[in-house]
Each structure stands twice: as C-alpha cells, then as structure tokens.
Specification:
Helices cover 25% and strands 34% of the residues. It is an alpha+beta fold. It has a single domain, classed as YggU-like (Conserved Hypothetical Protein Mth637, Chain: A), CATH 3.30.1200. Strands 1, 2, 3, 4, 5 and 6 form a six-stranded mixed β-sheet that branches. Strand 3 and strand 4 form a beta hairpin. The longest helix has 15 residues. The N and C termini lie far apart (30 Å). InterPro entries: DUF167, YggU-like_sf. It comes from Zymomonas mobilis subsp. mobilis (strain ATCC 10988 / DSM 424 / LMG 404 / NCIMB 8938 / NRRL B-806 / ZM1). Belongs to the UPF0235 family. This is UPF0235 protein Zmob_0483.
Amino acid sequence: MTETTQNEDLPYTPVEDGIRLALRVTARASKTGITMFDKDTAGRGLFRIRVAAPPVEGASNKNLMAYLSKSFSVPKGAVRIESGEHSKIKILHIAGDVKRLTEIAEDFIKKVS
C-alpha cells in the first residue's frame, strides 16, 4: 500500500487502494454515527464517532466497521482496523475507489464541522 500526499489536518489519508481514516471511538452511545471533526493531542485530524455497541468481545469494533461499510458503500470486508483494535483511537483502512471514498470523507467533514 503506497501512501499519497498526507495532510495531517484531515482525518483521512488517500492510499493506493483506498483511504485510511483516523477515528476516536466512544462506545455505548445511544446511536452510531460520526459526531464531529476534531484533532488529537498532536494536532492531527480525526473523526469522533460514537457506536451503540459496548466495547465487549469486539462488539463495538464490529458495529464501527458495519457502520463505515454502509456509510462508504463498500462491502464489510473492505473495512479493516489497521491499529488501535483495543483503543479509543483507531486507524482504519477502507479499500475501494480512492476518489469516491475521499469525496465521502469530505462530505462527512462538511456535515460535522
């Protein structure tokens, strides 16, 4: 996977076969969804997202990946956790058409900013 130019202000990075998303996940929410565009302590962009499932036996990760699969209109198998499987801060990879996935990520930024 080759990384293209990265803008650390954004919560996503286009890569050769899709995009990488930076997320801060909160489990046990009333509903699942992206709530805001934020920055981590180092100033890098990330999406804050809430998931309804509890963080027990991978339930919140499964809920998160199903939500992103539906939101980005990709198969569930196209979404995988690259890092942070047991952490609130996660990096996910979504495989697919880079241009289309980037447009969807930009739409999320506009909706929650």
